[in-house]
Specification:
Structural class: mainly beta
Number of helices: 6
CATH architecture: Beta Barrel
CATH class: Mainly Beta
Number of domains: 1
Mean pLDDT: 79
Radius of gyration: 26 Å
CATH superfamily: TonB-dependent receptor, beta-barrel domain
Shape: globular
Strand content: over 45%
């Protein structure tokens, strides 16, 4: 997937000379973009700087080029159409980080935490993790939930693109979009090795990362011949996860039940990744492939005076991802086409209180094509997308018959956007995206389907306020689709003893997409020493809010959670982020401190709980970090970060509840040795950072209070690595 900064720099290195008659393709483009007022450009206007003889006589033209000073990632945030942050490979290397989550935790507007199920979750603008879309190479990967980014080595990443405001191209989510671009092939020969040992619950977990990049044929020293280049990587990991849970239940104010639960799961993972970049004639081609697999076993034990239990589980997973990018220069601009697919096979079996077995397969295919052009320094774009996601499998509960599962989501989109120059050096970008979505599901003979159409307009302005500051205004309408597993009408039993804090999971074939109107007003400013400041006020108006609801069908039925549309809601927020050198003094000039804070007020404006806060929405979030970058010239590096997540309401139709605020602390230190390698030691989840929840409900005429505390053990990571 072409990066936003590639498009930006391409558009600002265009010769602005002769005018030739547009060809038939330019005329077709004019028809496609008529609604946006896009004028087709001449061949000379759109010929890139890498094309020799840009005039009719073959003589070179005088090119106008923008010279960007400072770090590119800083400039990307300042110049992008919507609010965007781009972190490239050089930034990542200087961070001295171990995993992808270490990178994300240092970016403005992002918060990385461990959620109630023990998985890493990513929040943007303080909104819940489901409001943040995480993609790999521009594609939503197969599988449920966010990916295990705490296990991915930072060496695997080429760059990370954070889109904080939706555009016609990046429809995104109400929180934002994180696009993780995996390492690209490079003609420069390089070999990297990294060995890591992690310790949690007094158990060791080894990890190995090895990669190799270099040319494929041709002369790597003569880059004008654009030789093909390859990148190969392998990753092996041993992962131990789990949590300790204490639960108390009070009936009529008297302690009626107390239990302790312990879950441990050990898994072995492997990854193989291959990238290939090069040229075929004048076309740029990039191919990628990834294979991965894992196997594991787990134990879930509940110790209780009245109802002890023990459950064992086994899991198997295999996944793949393929992608191809093709870029062609045209007389009117540049055409980028991407074809990608991914798949995942999951198998799990649980034996204990409830015997449960499930086998699932999910696949995603998408085709994207985008045409980009420019009038002077103003961009226009138009594109088409098709995506199909499908899931199937079978599920067996106890000794009953296996249920046959099938679901799918098909999405077709046509979009375009254009830029205009307004007074006061303001740039206006208008976009329009049309989407058609079909949702279908089947459990045995029970079938359900929906077909929905959406119009998604967007507007962005950028107004400079001097050389180092600017105002931004963003408005957009977008939709968030449920997953293929959310819409399956089947029940998954909970691990251990069923309770309001440990419910079964039920799908919902009637679940509708969430529709959101977004509005952002922000101020951005460059600061001395590669620093930056951002302030923004944002509002979200949501229809058909998707939230997890907990209920009992009757007094004798088990507790069940289900994703439901619970009405309309609005969210108002204030966000600030800053990054700047710690001091201008000699002792602190290499240190950088950063801080992010978000305050939120959310309220349901319709539905059975009108006036209440959105379930699971934290009232505030914040983070504070201090880092000293790793330098190739050698020396010590390190840092620490503190993350705060405020309390949130967990109210449902039958219960009130609350999740308490929590604070997490992480720190690392290391040393870079020139021409040799590095070592690094990090400690995560210092102090356990317990997660506390409370529920209050009525049962058989009695008031019951359920309290739970979940603790995750601190983790210690020790890494050594080299590059040659």
């Amino acid at each position: 997937m072409p990066s936003p900064h590639t498009t930006l720099l391409f558009a600002r290195r265009l010769p602005l000379a002769q005018t030739l008659r547009p060809n038939a393709l330019a005329a077709a483009m004019a028809v496609l973009c008529l609604g946006l007022g896009v004028a087709p450009l001449s061949q000379a206007q759109m010929m890139g700087t890498d094309e020799p003889g840009a005039g009719p006589s073959g003589s070179g033209q005088q090119l106008r080029e923008v010279v960007i000073s400072g770090r590119r990632s800083l400039e990307e945030r300042f110049m992008a159409t919507g609010s965007m942050v781009v972190v490239d490979r050089q930034d990542i290397e200087r961070m001295g980080v171990d995993s992808v989550t270490d990178v994300l935790s240092q970016l403005p507007g992002l918060q990385v935490n461990t959620n109630a199920s023990g998985n890493v979750e990513i929040r943007m603008r303080g909104l819940d993790s489901s409001a943040t879309r995480v993609m790999v190479d521009g594609q939503r990967t197969a599988g449920r939930g966010q990916m295990p980014l705490d296990q991915w080595p930072a060496d695997l990443i080429e760059r990370i693109e954070i889109v904080r405001s939706p555009t016609a191209e990046y429809a995104g989510s109400s929180g934002g979009t994180v696009n993780i671009v995996l390492r690209q092939a490079n003609p420069q020969r390089s070999t990297t090795l990294r060995l890591t040992d992690a310790i949690a619950w007094d158990k060791h977990q080894a990890r190995l990362w090895a990669s190799r990049s270099g040319p494929v044929g041709g002369d790597a020293k003569d880059l004008t011949n654009a030789p093909w280049a390859s990148f190969s990587g392998v990753w092996l990991a041993d992962q131990l996860s789990g949590a300790d849970v204490e639960r108390e239940q009070y009936t009529g104010g008297v302690l009626s039940q107390r239990s302790e639960s312990e879950s441990r799961s050990r898994r072995q993972d492997w990854w193989l990744i291959q990238r290939l970049n090069g040229r075929i004639g004048r076309d740029q081609v990039a191919l990628s492939g990834r294979l991965s697999g894992s196997s594991g076993s787990g134990r879930f034990e509940t110790r209780s005076a009245t109802n002890p239990s023990l459950e064992n589980s086994q899991t198997q997973r295999q996944s793949w991802q393929l992608g191809g990018d093709w870029t062609r220069r045209l007389p009117i601009g540049k055409l980028d086409t991407n074809l990608a697919g991914s798949g995942q096979d999951d198998g799990q079996e649980r034996q204990g209180v409830v015997n449960f077995k499930e086998d699932r397969q999910e696949s995603t295919w998408q085709l994207k094509s985008k045409l980009t052009g420019a009038r002077e320094s103003l961009l226009w774009m138009a594109g088409v997308e098709y995506e199909t996601r499908s899931g199937k499998g079978q599920s067996q509960l106890g000794t009953g018959a296996a249920e046959q599962l099938s679901s799918g989501i098909d999405r077709t989109a046509l979009w375009g956007q254009n830029e205009w120059a307004l007074p006061y050096k303001t740039t206006l970008t208008l976009g329009l995206r049309a989407e058609s979505v079909q949702l279908r599901s089947a459990v045995d003979a029970n079938r359900a389907s929906q077909r929905l159409d959406f119009w998604q307009p967007s507007l962005h302005t950028r107004t400079p306020a001097g050389e180092s500051a600017q105002w931004r205004l963003n408005w957009a309408r977008l939709t968030r689709q449920p997953t293929v597993w959310d819409i399956l009408d089947r029940n998954v039993p909970s691990q251990g003893i069923n309770s309001i804090s440990n419910p079964d999971t039920l799908g919902n074939p009637s679940l509708r997409p969430e529709i959101t109107q977004t509005f952002d007003l922000g101020w951005e400013q460059r600061l001395a020493g590669q620093g930056q400041l951002g302030l923004s006020v944002f509002a979200r108006q949501v229809e058909d809010v998707i939230a997890t609801q907990v209920f009992q069908a009757n007094a004798a039925a088990p507790w069940t959670e289900q994703r439901q549309n619970i009405g309309s809601a609005r969210t108002l927020g204030l966000e600030a982020d800053i990054k700047r050198p710690l001091s201008e003094e000699a002792w602190g000039r290499d240190w950088m401190w950063r801080a992010t804070a978000t305050v939120l007020d959310s309220q349901l404006s319709s539905g059975p709980r009108e006036g209440q806060a959105i379930p699971g929405q934290a009232r505030y979030t914040g983070s504070l970090g201090l880092t000293k970058p790793m330098r190739r010239s050698g020396g010590f590096f390190g840092g620490a970060s503190l993350t705060l997540t405020g309390p949130s309401a967990l109210n449902t139709a039958v219960a009130t509840g609350r999740e308490s605020s929590r604070t997490t602390l992480e720190a690392h230190v290391g040393q870079s040795i020139p021409r040799t390698g590095f070592w690094r030691v990090g400690v995560y989840n210092i102090g356990d950072a317990p997660l506390r929840r409370s529920r209050l409900y009525d049962s058989a005429g009695q008031q019951i209070t359920d309290l739970s505390t979940t603790r995750y053990a601190p983790r210690i990571f020790a890494s050594v690595g080299t590059q040659f």
